[in-house]
Amino acid sequence: MTLRYSRTLRVCITGLAVALGAASLTACNANSSQKSGDAGGGNTIALLLPESKTTRYEAFDKPLFEKKVAELCSSCKVSYYNADQDEAKQSQQVETAITAGAKAIVLGPVNGDGAGGMVASAKNAKIPVIAYDRFIAGADYYLSFDNEQVGRIQGKSLVDALGGRGNILMLNGAPSDPNAAQFKAGARSVIGQSGIRVIGEYDNPDWSPDKAQQFVTDQLSRNKPSDIQGVYAANDGQAGGVVAALTGAGVSADALPPITGQDAELAAVQRIVAGRQSMTVYKPIAIEANTAAEVAVALATGKDVPTTTASGIQRSTFKDVSSYIFTPIAVTKANVASTVVADKFYTADQICTPEYKDACAKAGIN
């Protein structure tokens, strides 16, 4: 059964808008960008993302989503908001999107557990909500990667690299991010079965590389670098902070322990090619952003949401929410060329800057 939504359009007016577009949105306190096909289109889709410290959201999710919406619907436009890791700000942005007349809301929550009120407000206005990348109870749809599998991939990488024994640090994601708990659970399920010992653990409140660097620096005041045989970093930004802390403490770049990551950030892929980070988890963001756009356009225009049997997409129900779950991929030096380069996530030229040219040649990236 397909849900269809209709409602009375509500428009945010805070004064006479002399110019079209930006004036009214600014008055609503929303950092918003719009793409539209037909100038008179009234099918607005709100895209709300949680933060900008992780490079993927601004560099990939937003532009990919906007491009796909434009391809699918000439009368649709996208209003974009970024919460900058501020839950109260995101709540206000949701209200702004509702008042401005969004016909579908795609919400990547700052705090999945705390986003229920935002979903309730949207539903009161008869606006469907797609929980994007992070789960929200009560949403109409949920799209994400298999997050526990992400953690298992990371954990297995460390166990394999260390032969199942040794001391590691664990740098997890933000406690407010529901995915972070799933990454940790997946990693722990593998690490806990091995002889690896966690000698220090940190839940990074905003995923920031600088806090990750400070945590590792603090750990190095209590442990010799040689006492740390590996590091579980839940994402690539934190992995960069780990590398900075270790090299800052005198560990040479070619003597760094195995360090995990996630998101396949360009800097991380370069570190992997150079042997400074052991792996990352590549989540082909295009499949997530494109599927979100397809579902959002269908909801905004009163059409059937897509069903799919496409490779890498599992249709299921997750905690009573109809879901699209995508498959994550481990990336190491051995398969950079056949994953992120083959998928055109990055070009060889982007990865193989002069500093990494020799390492790229050895890894067969050209």
Please provide a written account of the structure.
By secondary structure, the protein is of the alpha/beta class. It has 2 domains: 146 residues, 3-Layer(aba) Sandwich (Rossmann fold), CATH 3.40.50; 171 residues, Rossmann fold, CATH 3.40.50.2300. Helices cover 39% and strands 18% of the residues. It has 13 helices and 12 strands. Strands 2-1-3-4-5-11-10 form a 7-stranded mixed sheet, sandwiched between helices. β10 and β11 form a beta hairpin. α2 packs across α10. The chain is globular and about 60 Å long. The N terminus is likely disordered.
Evaluate the radius of gyration.
Answer: 22 Å
Number of domains: 2
Task: Please write the CATH class name of the largest domain.
Answer: Alpha Beta
Provide the CATH superfamily of the largest domain. Response regulator
Question: What do the pLDDT scores average to?
Answer: 89
Q: Can you give the helix content as a percent range? A: 25-40%
| N-to-C series of helices and strands | HEHEHEHEEHEHEHEHHEHEEEHHH
- State the shape: globular
DSSP strand count: 12
Largest sheet: 7 strands, mixed
What are the low-pLDDT stretches, counting only 5+ consecutive residues below 50? 1-41
Give the strand order, joined by hyphens, for the main sheet. 2-1-3-4-5-11-10
**Share in β-strands:** 15-25%
Distance between the termini: 49 Å
* Count, helices: 13
Just name the CATH architecture of the largest domain: 3-Layer(aba) Sandwich
CATH fold title of the largest domain? Rossmann fold
InterPro entries: Bact_Solute-Bind_Prot2 (IPR050555), Peripla_BP_I (IPR028082), SBP_2_dom (IPR025997)
Protein name: Solute-binding protein
GO molecular function: carbohydrate binding
GO cellular component, one term: outer membrane-bounded periplasmic space
